[in-house]
Amino acid sequence: MTPLTLSHWPTPLDPAPRLAAALGLGAGDLAVKRDDLTDFGGGNKVRKLEHLVADARSAGATVLVTSGGAQSNHARMTAAAAARCGLGAVLVLGGTPTAEHPGNLALEELLGARVVAAGDVDGDELDHRVAEVAEQLRAEGQVPAVLPLGGSSPTGARAYLACAAELAEQAPDAAHVVVAVGSGGTMAGLVAGLGADRVLGVDTAAVPDPTERVAGLVAALGHSPGPLRLRRDQAGDGYGVLTPAAMAAMRTAARTEGLLLDPVYTAKALAGLAAAVADGSIRPGERTVFLHTGGLPGLFGHPVARELAAELLAHA
Ligand SMILES: *Cc1c(COP(=O)(O)O)cnc(C)c1O
């Protein structure tokens, strides 16, 4: 299936000399791949949606149905892709979506999506709710297309082969590409395109079995994964829960480069990069790319946003 074009490509690769120095790397060692600078509020899910929505349209879909956490960036970008393509969107959200923490929810209202709050359920129960919603839509005469959690089917993961190809042009000598791992499709596409030894994934505890997920998707793309480089030391108390290292990473990126990270994924990914430099698995002189996968709207749906504002105002 020919993918749709939903954003502008390639995304830029920006040098980050001040961040590099703060991490203990040489000033020229680090660059940031700006997949946060895409359409739909920014983020990695746009690449996946170009493939997933193309398939949905060719199957005659009238409405996209997907699932995620209360502040799912994938849900927000699915709603935006649906609007762009003249389709409906139903978002089945787990966790506790609340107007106290608007973030992505505010954008989903603007985008015209319908939200189904599934409550605090596990992955299987969330899938079950999605199937129920799809069944209801069919009974109403609609044609639903169910997109997987995080867009991470083999079709979605395949989209990151395109990012790998951009990086092969923009940073052919990159020894390390550092990326947050949620549902795993982004890392899987990069591994398929660049090789397992050049991709360092940092788990965010979005799924219980990230290694198996990524390996399975790499295999589905027709590659043998080899040993994956997947750090699980930044997950802290779980998905969406900030760690001191992630908080420090957000401040460092902002204060050295004006680079804005999100608390759920990219802050933990940069904390993982810092840990990799500290333990010697990334060394000065090795060209390193940090993949910024977006997610900034989620900051305004996270409790830390209020704490940051309070902290600032305490010194006003
Ligand atoms: C979904 C997401 C990720 C993780 O991507 P996966 O392909 O699900 O592993 C990373 N960063 C942000 C901002 C995301 O929204």
What report would you give on this structure?
Helices cover 44% and strands 16% of the residues. It is α/β, with parallel strands linked by helices. The protein folds into two domains: 13-43 and 153-314, Rossmann fold; 45-151, Rossmann fold. Pyridoxal-5'-phosphate (PLP) binds at residues 43-45, 73-74, 150, 152, 180-187, 262, 265-266, 293-295.
Report the CATH architecture of the largest domain. 3-Layer(aba) Sandwich
Query: What is the helical fraction, as a range of percent?
Result: 40-55%
- Please write the CATH class name of the largest domain: Alpha Beta
Q: Can you give the mean pLDDT? A: 97
**How many strands in all?**
10
Order of strands in the sheet with most strands: 1-2-10-7-8-9
Structural class: alpha/beta
Family: Belongs to the ACC deaminase/D-cysteine desulfhydrase family.
Keywords: Pyridoxal phosphate
Organism: Geodermatophilus sabuli
Protein name: Pyridoxal-phosphate dependent enzyme
